[in-house]
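Replying to the earlier thread about multi-chain prediction with a worked example.

Input:
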Amino acid sequence: SQKIEQNSEALNIQEGKTATLTCNYTNYSPAYLQWYRQDPGRGPVFLLLIRENEKEKRKERLKVTFDTTLKQSLFHITASQPADSATYLCALPSYQTGANNLFFGTGTRLTVIP
Amino acid sequence: NAGVTQTPKFQVLKTGQSMTLQCAQDMNHNSMYWYRQDPGMGLRLIYYSASEGTTDKGEVPNGYNVSRLNKREFSLRLESAAPSQTSVYFCASTPAALKKYEQYFGPGTRLTVT
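Result:
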């Protein structure tokens, strides 16, 4: 069955440091991968999409890499701020319900300590 | 432009009661989705509608029904609620049933079944 592992349930880092979150997947080769942010009590918000032929994508302080050989994506937040504290979700095309649907990981809760 | 709206925000049901969760989007999106989110389980797809007039089962459809009333609205019905359906329910939409689009989520409905 399809599986996504996000490195840990919770990650604490000091303000100003770079946060690195990991998304590992098994069993197939997705055409793309997405990252979302979710704040407590709210719905997820899309951050970045990276395609299988792209090694890296950047948006402001965010950087995503996609290694299809390792079956892994890394999500980096540079110069982290307390406002970056949230849960970050990795999502891939679902091979159970169709590639136009998403399959989500359980997320990593990031806390940036002032 | 309200995006994706969901009603109600909170609901408490007794076992065996029925209810309908409402979702609407004003972005002229073709595809709509219903997810549930439980601690440690991540977002799981219940049903989706790739376009107006079509609906399909997701990963966890048992105990639910859906209606794509028109392009804007996609409702989720629990005919006979069970405690296992206690969860947070999210509706989402995307411009088209294509692989490159992100999903836009509503604020969620927190449902408790006693």
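The radius of gyration of chain A is 14 Å.

Feel free to reuse this layout for your own posts.
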